[in-house]
Amino acid sequence: MSRQPKNWATHSIRPDTNVHAAAGFALDPVPQYGLPMANHLSSDQVTHYQRDGFLFPLRGTAAEEALQYRTSLEAARASHPELMQGVEAQKLHLVTTWMADIVRTPTILDAVESLIGPDLLCWSSTLFVKPADGKSFVSWHQDGNYWGLSNPEIVSAWLALSASTVESGCMQMVPGSHEWDTTEHNETFDADNLLSRGQVMKREIDSSDAVDLVLAPGEISLHHVNVAHASAPNNSTDDRIGIAIRYVSPNVKQRLSEKDSATLVRGEDRVGNFEHEERPAHDFEPAAMSRLAHIVARRKSTVYQDTPQ
């Protein structure tokens, strides 16, 4: 059974409050968007996200489609294992047509648009495969501490390709933690930690305050860039497979380098903070693989310059 936080109902702020103001960023003004249109999030769901820093479960794709995507992923893991970990595993939508389709899924984009507006870029599509070994885990952390992005017009959509349960080590999040001041992290580089640096918040987290984000295949959760989250080892009999798609508005820019890239997936980019990435014509085409190598090399020298290569 999913654990519910002791103070689940107490994380309440007014819907018109700028929930990013206390997230530890030096902020540019954050635009206010109107109520969601049909097929987007309801006003209650938007308020829930603003209050807690996350929202789940939402239907991203049909369960059968998620199974097809998993089949495609398993084939890619067999043919290109070098792309399944590290920075390379953050940009598979640049070299596989099925991942390019995932990051452009209309139902996912509709939900994200409700939170950060109609112009959307995909900054990364990070693959998280947690083997059923009872070892691999993700420590308590906040994403905003190490991505180098300028403001929190960022939403992560986590798509389950397999069942994400308490037993398999689903994500856990602390409601309202996106309003905490920025917390320093220790970098452990633990081999069993799925994070690039093995980063751990320098803050005591009471696990009884956390919510288990249980998802069925094809379901998604949405979370704020500064919400505290973690996940325990996978003690089930199947790999826990998810894709964390990081969407940003064009107003976001990279602070750690002069250049960064992203994929325009909806609307327009009138700002130009990111170089636009191309969609692959077919899986692992040479031109796409060359572009990926260039982008990965740049990220390794900037955002991930202090991580093991």
- Envelope shape: globular
Q: Tell me the series of helices and strands, N- to C-terminal.
A: HEHHHEEEEEEEEEEEEH
Poorly predicted residue ranges: 1-38
- CATH homolog superfamily: q2cbj1_9rhob like domain
Q: How would a crystallographer describe the biggest sheet? A: 7 strands, mixed
Top CATH class: Mainly Beta
Assign the CATH architecture: Sandwich
Number of helices: 5
Strand content: 15-25%
How would you describe this structure to a colleague?
The chain is built from five helices and 13 strands. With 309 residues, the chain is an alpha+beta fold. It starts with 42 loop residues before the first helix and ends in an 8-residue tail after the last helix. It is globular and about 50 Å long. The strands form three sheets. Strands 1-9-4-11-2-12-13 form a seven-stranded mixed beta sheet. It has helices at residues 43-52, 63-79, 97-102, 106-116, 286-301; strands at residues 54-59, 120-130, 138-141, 154-160, 171-173, 185-187, 199-201, 211-212, 219-224, 229-231, 240-248, 261-266, 275-276.
Give descriptors for this structure:
disordered N terminus; Jelly Rolls; globular; single chain; alpha+beta; 309 residues; 13 strands
Draw up the topology in text:
Elements lengths: L42 H10 L1 E6 L3 H17 L17 H6 L3 H11 L3 E11 L7 E4 L12 E7 L10 E3 L11 E3 L11 E3 L9 E2 L6 E6 L4 E3 L8 E9 L12 E6 L8 E2 L9 H16 L8
Parallel strand pairs: 12-13
Antiparallel strand pairs: 1-9, 2-11, 2-12, 3-10, 4-9, 4-11, 5-8, 5-10, 6-7
